[in-house]
Fold this sequence. Notes:
Elements: H1 4-19, E1 31-38, E2 46-52, E3 57-65, H2 69-85, H3 93-111, E4 117-125, E5 130-136, E6 142-145, E7 151-153, E8 171-174, E9 179-184, H4 186-189, H5 200-210, H6 216-231, E10 240-247
Antiparallel strand pairs: 1-10, 2-3, 3-4, 4-5, 5-8, 6-7, 6-9, 9-10
Amino acid sequence: MASEDELDLALAAELQAALLPAECPSGCQHQVAAARNRMCRSIGGDFYDFIRINEDQAALVIGDVVGHGVRASLLMAQIMGYLRSQVPDLIRPIRSVSAVNRMLLGLGDKVGSVLPCSMFYALIDTPSGICFYINSGHPKPILCRRDTGESHFMEAGGMLLGVNDFAPEDLCYTFMPGDRLVMYTDGITDAANKRGERFGINRLMEIVSRHADISPAELADAVFDAVDGFRHGAERADDETIVVVDRT
């Protein structure tokens, strides 16, 4: 029979999974998206979200609370809850990211510990494809042309959240029909086999380019399958998340 602690962890895992959306909000024009997530323990610190702000704007978020287990899970839920409670302000990426950073700094002061978190935050105007984004210490997303498979990294820079107070800067990119955005956490690129070799960004980029013509859901599955094949039975050491968004 499962212990009380085991039952509590199982419930926490179910609640955490329920927080993570499977696709873009319904009626999100010009975007098709899919996401896959698996924690290395019952619960973890990876998170992502698609938040509809108004008829034309949506926020895309992916992040990784440093660490594993209960503390990371509580922090990711706190961040997601905060962002969802501030929908009118999400149209201002700098204000939103700064607010999350201040929240983590305040929590860190209360518990006497640094609570670092990486996060990529993008505000997309769905009719025009114009995107303002901030990358706070997160792995650089990949941009891919679905007709040619040509892929490259999005320009990015910025500090981890929860470490120091700073003024984030946003960058701008215009998504065109046929563009694909691939966001991920470092659990994918850092996945290691029994020889200690890492999956790496080059393998991920090759899969994204080679499978440019399949759906977002199929690509997300293909990446997880490739990581599992590369790991070849080695233990998963970190949470793994991938989010794929197509501009149609």
